[in-house]
């Protein structure tokens, strides 16, 4: 099964830097014998130029896809500062990141808000990467299972029928909050336990008997730990933050699949 390696550039870079990064990633992936499915999540204001840069090499169009880091839970209207799903269609933007821990914790997005975003994305036939993850406090008090179960249930509950019809449009990213940007990734054993839990939840909720829904790991993925993480049970890919801002590191991670 083709692994997914996604790059979340967050609020980093400039037009010049990100165009160069896209070009270097595109050429780097082109040289790989075995290529992952790559998804780039640039800051929204750069979607258009990055989309054009991706398309410059037709051979790679299928391997590299574009995603948006955040989306409005509403259709077009009076929502200052927001971007609707319809607007993303103008830029060949296929994936939407929903529920990233920085949105949950810094921008106070509630579980209801996240569920609304999943719902509108599925109504509009978009592909969703839903992020879930426990805080350090939850991890230390052995609450990971409860937190992940609650986050998955609350995000998907409203959209179960639509997801069942289009299972491949859903990807889950398990990202322990305490592992994001800290240089301290989760232990392989913990990753496997949580991914297996997510598999079971998806089986129960969506009847995903064929494991069509991919489960990515995110949180300090680096060229050093990528192989071990990507080889772990039920790990279908990685969501990479910091290391995706270096084409060299990102390609090294892609090379480990
Ligand atoms: P990181 O970020 O790789 O810098 O830990 C991952 C993420 O936030 O998706």
Give a structural overview.
The protein is α/β, with parallel strands linked by helices. It has a single domain (4-255), classed as Aldolase class I (TIM Barrel, Alpha-Beta Barrel). It is 42% helix and 16% strand. Helix 1 packs parallel to helix 11 (247-255) and helix 5 crosses helix 7. It binds 2-phosphoglycolic acid. 2-phosphoglycolic acid binds next to strand 8.
Fill in the keyword field for this structure.
single chain, 257 residues, eight-stranded parallel β-barrel, 42% helix, globular, binds 2-phosphoglycolic acid
Q: Quick one: CATH superfamily?
A: Aldolase class I
Biggest sheet, strands in spatial order?
1-2-3-4-5-6-7-8
Rg is 17 Å
Fraction of residues in H or I helices: 40-55%
- The CATH class, by name, is Alpha Beta
Q: Based on helices, strands and strand pairing, what is the structural class?
A: alpha/beta
* Distance from first to last alpha carbon: 10 Å
List cofactors, ions and other ligands. 2-phosphoglycolic acid
Mean pLDDT: 96
Oligomer: single chain
Biggest sheet layout = 8 strands, parallel, barrel
Low-confidence stretches: none
Number of DSSP-assigned strands: 8
Hey, roughly how much beta strand do the residues contain?
A: 15-25%
Number of domains: 1
The coarse silhouette is: globular
CATH-assigned fold name: TIM Barrel
| Helical segment count | 11
Write the topology of this structure.
Layout: E1 4-8, H1 15-31, E2 37-41, H2 47-55, E3 64-68, H3 85-89, E4 93-98, H4 101-105, H5 111-123, E5 127-132, H6 136-140, H7 144-156, H8 160-165, E6 170-174, H9 188-206, E7 214-218, H10 226-231, E8 237-240, H11 247-255
Parallel strand pairs: 1-2, 1-8, 2-3, 3-4, 4-5, 5-6, 6-7, 7-8
The protein binds 2-phosphoglycolic acid.
């Amino acid at each position: 099964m083709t692994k997914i390696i996604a790059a979340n550039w967050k609020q980093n870079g400039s037009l010049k830097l990100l165009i160069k990064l896209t070009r270097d990633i595109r050429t780097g992936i082109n040289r790989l014998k075995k290529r992952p499915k790559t998804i780039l999540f640039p800051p929204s204001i750069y979607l258009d130029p990055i989309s054009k840069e991706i398309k410059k090499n037709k051979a790679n169009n299928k391997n590299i896809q574009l995603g948006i880091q955040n989306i409005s839970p509403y259709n077009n209207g009076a929502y200052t500062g927001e971007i609707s799903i319809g607007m993303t269609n103008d830029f060949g933007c296929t994936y939407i990141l929903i529920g990233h821990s920085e949105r949950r914790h810094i921008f106070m997005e509630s579980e209801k808000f996240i569920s609304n975003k999943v719902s509108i994305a599925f109504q509009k036939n978009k592909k969703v990467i839903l992020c879930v993850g426990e805080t350090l406090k939850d991890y230390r008090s052995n609450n990971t299972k409860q937190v992940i179960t609650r986050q998955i249930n609350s995000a998907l509950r409203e959209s179960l029928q639509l997801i069942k019809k289009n299972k491949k449009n859903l990807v889950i990213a398990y990202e322990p909050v305490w592992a994001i940007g800290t240089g301290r990734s989760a232990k392989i054993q913990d990753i496997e336990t949580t991914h297996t839990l997510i598999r079971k939840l998806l089986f129960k909720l969506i009847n995903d008997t064929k494991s069509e829904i991919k489960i990515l790991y995110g949180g300090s993925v680096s060229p050093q730990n990528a192989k071990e993480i990507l080889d772990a049970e039920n790990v279908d890919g990685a969501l990479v933050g910091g290391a995706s801002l270096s084409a060299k590191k990102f390609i090294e991670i892609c090379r480990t699949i």
